[in-house]
Amino acid sequence: MGFLLHTSSDHFLFISCCSSDRTPSEIERFSCERFSCDRFSCDRFSSERFSCERFSCDRFSCERFSCERFSCERFSCERFSCERFSCERFSCERFSCERFSCERFSCERFSCEGFSCERFSCERFSCERFSCERFSCERFSCDRFSCERFSCERFSCERFSCVRFSCDRFSCERFSCERFSCERFSCVRFSCDRFSCERFSCVRFSCDRFSCERFSCVRFSCERFSCERFSCERFSCERFSC
Predict the structure, then answer these.
(1) Which domain of life, per UniProt (predicted)?
(2) What is the mean pLDDT of the chain?
C-alpha cells in the first residue's frame, strides 16, 4: 500500500507504507486526521525531519515519515525549506530557494533538458523525463515541457495534443460534453465502464454512478447533475440532500 504526496502543481511522490519502530514521542509529533498512524506507516519519513509548518506533529504521524527520502539538507527554498524536508534524495542541489533552480533539478528525473518554458525553464527543471515532443498544445507547449513521461501515446486530443491526455488514458465514450469531448479523451483511467458518454453529458455528469436523489441541493443541483449520474451507492441522500 501507499499514497501520493503532492510536492508541486505537477508532481507527486509515491509513498509506500511499511512497518516502523518509531518511539511514542515521535508518534505524537505526526498524527492528525489526514495522516494518522493507521493510514500511513513507513520508514521513509521521520518525525525529526518533518517539524515545520506544513509537516507538523498534528498532521503527520511518526510511523509514516521516517526514512532517508526526505532530509532537511535537500530542501531549501520558499516551498521546500530545510525545516520541512530533509534526506539524501532531495538535496539542496535539487531544490533551492526561489522555488526550483537549475541547481536543484539536475538528476535523472529532473534535468535541464526536460523543462524549457515560461513555467518550467531549464533553470528550474531538466531531465529525460520531459521531452518537448510530448508537450505541444496550448497548456503544454514544446517550449514548456519535454520528456519521455509525456509522450503522444499517453496524451493526445484536440485540447491536449500529445500532451496531457492521450488515447490509452482516456476513451472517447467517457467524455462527451462541453468540458470533455469524445475527441479529447480515450484511455484506461477513464474507460467506458467508468466514465461513459451517458454519464458525462454536456450537463456535466450523467450515468449510473451518481443518482439525482443525492445531488439536488444548492451545490449539486439537478441542473448540474443528472439523476442517472449519482447513485446512492457512493453518495447517500443524507450527505447531499435538497
Answers:
(1) Eukaryota
(2) 36
What confidence category does residue 240 fall into, taking pLDDT thresholds of 50, 70 and 90?
A: very low
Can you tell me the distance from the alpha carbon of 113 to that of 117, in angstroms, rounded to the nearest whole number? Answer: 11
Percent of the chain clearing pLDDT 90 (strictly above): 0
C-alpha distances out from residue 104 to 7, 58, 179, Å: 14, 29, 37
Total residue length of the chain: 242
Of 218, 204, 214, the C-alpha closest to 238 is 214
Task: Determine contact, residues 93/72, Cβ cutoff 8 Å.
Answer: no
Please give the pLDDT value at position 40: 38
Within 32-182, residue ranges assigned H as helices are: none
Q: What is the pLDDT of residue 100?
A: 39
Domain ranges of the chain: 1-74
3-state secondary structure of 25: helix
Distance CA 185, CA 170 (A): 4
Query: How far is it, in rounded angstroms, from Cα 140 to Cα 137?
Result: 5
12 beta partners: 6
